[in-house]
Amino acid sequence: MLQFDGVDLHYGSFRALSGVTLHAAPGELVVLLGANGAGKTSIFMAASGIHKPSAGSIRFGERELVGQRPAQIVASGLVHCPEGRKLFPMMSVKKNLTLGAYVHRRDAAGIQRSLDEVFALFPVLAQKQDHPAGSLSGGQQQMVAIGRALLGRPRLLLLDEPSLGLAPLIVKQVFEVIQRINKAGTTVLLAEQNAYSALAIADRAYVIERGRIALEGDRDSLLHNEAVRAAYIGA
Ligand code: ATP
């Protein structure tokens, strides 16, 4: 479904990605592990058309994404839920959610159906739909960010560090929801520093170090890999 081949990405003369080759097959939940600055966000920025790779190819189904505009990429079913949520705090929860449906803005009935699905997944957002998004707790704001991405009707959902800054109990809920979204048929690429919880729900994972793929494997092989345990999981 998503295939990176030899992707390089530069910020000026700084090379943030070097020869990244990775894939996610339909229905998979694939995790990207890596320390701060390893290049996880850059992989997402390249896929969603925000930063253009300097080399390589990114295919989404039959389509080449390199050179396409972000709105075209969203409309094709690849939706990016960014690190740090990036909500509009003064706008209502409902307005923030519906912004995610911008590419479907002429389909009012479809937007309502998606909103109902998001409210079924996150009942608290139905209760708080008229509240300013900035008045919600951190965990609820993360739910709005994920819900907004779902309003884009993703076939492939890119989730960038959804557990960042959340309390352990909330982190658990967020991972459960991600697993539900994936089991309902959406392919997921999840960047996380919370390696153990992410691997627990993953089919496969890649370890990114200094812009390169350092290691890849299925959940069990990485959960039991000594280097991964030492660097990302702890004893
Ligand atoms: P984090 O978890 O901190 O977001 P990350 O693994 O997502 O880390 P990236 O954000 O992709 O890493 O950053 C990879 C490298 O590229 C880092 O060294 C970072 O400083 C650099 N970088 C990221 N964005 C830019 C930018 N817009 N301009 C210049 N350098 C950047």
Automatic annotation (TrEMBL):
<feature type="domain" description="ABC transporter">
    <location>
        <begin position="2"/>
        <end position="235"/>
    </location>
</feature>
<dbReference type="GO" id="GO:0005524">
    <property type="term" value="F:ATP binding"/>
</dbReference>
<dbReference type="InterPro" id="IPR052156">
    <property type="entry name" value="BCAA_Transport_ATP-bd_LivF"/>
</dbReference>
<keyword id="KW-0029">Amino-acid transport</keyword>
<dbReference type="InterPro" id="IPR027417">
    <property type="entry name" value="P-loop_NTPase"/>
</dbReference>
<comment type="similarity">
    <text>Belongs to the ABC transporter superfamily.</text>
</comment>
<dbReference type="InterPro" id="IPR017871">
    <property type="entry name" value="ABC_transporter-like_CS"/>
</dbReference>
<protein>
    <submittedName>
        <fullName>ABC transporter ATP-binding protein</fullName>
    </submittedName>
</protein>
<dbReference type="InterPro" id="IPR003593">
    <property type="entry name" value="AAA+_ATPase"/>
</dbReference>
<dbReference type="InterPro" id="IPR003439">
    <property type="entry name" value="ABC_transporter-like_ATP-bd"/>
</dbReference>
<keyword id="KW-0472">Membrane</keyword>
<dbReference type="Pfam" id="PF00005">
    <property type="entry name" value="ABC_tran"/>
</dbReference>
<keyword id="KW-0813">Transport</keyword>
<keyword id="KW-1003">Cell membrane</keyword>
<keyword id="KW-0547">Nucleotide-binding</keyword>
<keyword id="KW-0067">ATP-binding</keyword>
